[in-house]
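Hey, can you fold this?
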Amino acid sequence: MAVGGDRSAGEAGSPLAERLNYLFANMHPPGAPYTNGHVADEISRGTQEYGGVKLTEQYLSMLRNGRRANPSPDVLRALAKFFAVPVGYLMGDLSASQAERVEEEVRFLVAMRDQRVRAIALRSVGLPPEVQDSLNTIIAQFRQQMNLPADPPDAGGEERP
């Protein structure tokens, strides 16, 4: 088990399990998602980087399936560091809008993995705002023609800096 143990068992579908599974499904290098074994090994090997936390594949599996739902703060900090998200996201300390913002950023990073999406985004850098607006209009028209939602699920209507 992980250093610090587990203070209580949770139900399957716990918020922590849902968030961990979301990160596993989305935050990985191109190719294939991380395995429990890989993440546990990386955290356990990087003792200074991850605060000396020792994590097993089995314990991580229990966190992901909800059989354990309240790991030590050290384990949560190590997992948050591994996935590059705020620890509050895993601890459940963020408001719903803050948690959604973290997930929006994850979706953005996932989209940027696609070379074609990245090329479109980078080519628009430096163009005047009215040209960027025109490009957005053209993309929206293509999305409509292909029966896709007007905006991707992560757009949220917010402008990005």
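Oh, and this one too while you're at it.
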Amino acid sequence: MSDTPVIGVLALQGDVREHLIALASADALARPVRRPEELAEVGGLVIPGGESTTMFKLASLFGILEPLRERVRDGMPVYGTCAGMIMLADKILDPRSGQETVGGIDMIVRRNAFGRQNESFEAVVEVAGIEGGPVEGVFIRAPWVESVGAQVEVVAEHDGHIVAVRQGNALATSFHPELTGDHRVHALFVDMVRAVG
């Protein structure tokens, strides 16, 4: 793979455009992904924020859920923000009826843990592996991680709760770095994709 990795953003629902912009700013070739054939053309994938139940239903409908699970199992770098974090969890503490995930990170996640939409907030978060000081985290109906398995590295906490984790080629944050104009988290993910290429 060249120095400019091709990275997809799962474009079923959520803030897809902001992720495409953040990835492009971090020197990746970013493209929306909705179908299995588009997934096959990317070296890494971002699963954006949105509504995790809806995302699961649409991923099933578009026939991309199983191919995505397979690629993640095979080690494709993947980064989930907010609902994307829920999608990457092996287990959801309070799933909606019938809700499933892609999996890939040995963690238990609590949906909407920080409260409802009107309780959204911004906070400064120290993220391990990100140089240049803390990042601004935007938390919108954000989940948090209740617990992690032995292979999972906790890379950020806020208010005593785990808000960013990494396991192998999978990265997840409960906040939205794509909404701040600071693209260092995306740059970290682009480097993860490069390392696999």
